[in-house]
Amino acid sequence: xxxxxxxxxxxxxxxxxxxxxxxxxxxxxxxxxxxxxxxxxxxxxxxxxxxxxxxxxxxxxxxxxxxxxxxxxxxxxxxxxxxxxxxxxxxxxxxxxxxxxxxxxxxxxxxxxxxxxxxxxxxxxxxxxxxxxxxxxxxxxxxxxxxxxxxxxxxxxxxxxxxxxxxxxxxxxxxxxxxxxxxxxxxxxxxxxxxxxxxxxxxxxxxxxxxxxxxxxxxxxxxxxxxxxxxxxxxxxxxxxxxxxxxxxxxxxxxxxxxxxxxxxxxxxxxxxxxxxxxxxxxxxxxxxxxxxxxxxxxxxxxxxxxxxxxxxxxxxxxxxxxxxxxxxxxxxxxxxxxxxxxxxxxxxxxxxxxxxxxxxxxxxxxxxxxxxxxxxxxxxxxxxxxxxx
Length: 390
Description:
Layout: H1 2-16, H2 21-33, H3 35-45, H4 53-59, H5 66-73, H6 83-108, H7 118-121, E1 130-132, E2 138-140, E3 147-151, E4 154-158, E5 162-167, E6 180-185, E7 191-194, E8 200-203, E9 207-212, E10 220-225, E11 227-231, E12 239-243, E13 246-250, E14 254-258, E15 265-271, E16 274-280, E17 283-290, E18 294-298, E19 303-307, H8 311-314, E20 320-327, H9 328-339, E21 342-345, E22 354-360, H10 365-374, E23 380-383, E24 386-389
Parallel strand pairs: 5-7, 10-12, 21-24
Antiparallel strand pairs: 1-2, 1-6, 3-4, 4-5, 6-9, 7-8, 8-11, 9-10, 11-14, 12-13, 13-16, 14-15, 15-18, 16-17, 18-19, 20-22, 23-24
Helix pairs in contact: 1-2, 1-4, 2-3
């Protein structure tokens, strides 16, 4: 999928005349690989208008067919209605309604602001990632300079982007008491963490992880809310992630766990092997072993496992948001966590519009919303500090 987004970017640049020599060479190699690729490029270039990259992304969506594509590229069609025949009856019905509506609109219309002001009104100074120590003390971590926190035998290094735990504790010492810290990442932020055993964890926006400062020899257990990506170091002792109703048990592997939605808790395996267990009130309900590329989803009724492209579920840790035929409601949910805003649908039908796109954290919210407007019959307005979808 990553290549599809790259090619879509290059096609958009070629149409707009901003592609460089390296990009042209990459695009030519892609066309030479398959005749279908060359055909797709020719069809796009044959249109009489420039296309935005989200429109080109959509052309790679396997669930769209060529008939839909033709409709999008063809000129607007005009349908002739026998207006004169029905005008007399329509006027009698619609004119009073129009008067009532006009009065209501003028008297009670909401005060919407232009979308161009979205970043000035909504974007706030970033909230701080916080570390709560075992004694209850809370520390703000978003500092520009590196600092070292000493906690018992543990030395914790903070460089404003990640925490690294180093400990002199002996994992074989059964007498040592486990003490827990909790890392909390607010909306609009991401953070990295290296646990005492060398395991790397990426925490997404609006997430938290509770974990011991040092692990013992028997087991390694952490507690997740929100979303986290784990690269677990193999030590010989099991590593277990507790997240809502699911437990993920591993020895050494890479996987993503998302429990933002309690009705759809997902585990996506990139490498290795994991066992996903569903527990309710402490009792095991269901269990599945995942292979690389598997995704399990617990929907409160059953644990469903399917093969997926893992990139849309894991590239967030690299500062990228990937949407693959996702509906606009899910798109707005993820953008809201990314940029820290509230939203509301006035046009409920728009919730079911689907998008295929990729954004990174260098792009502003205004740019993203403008692109979304250009690729669907949807408009964004501001009402106080809430984005309204019309």
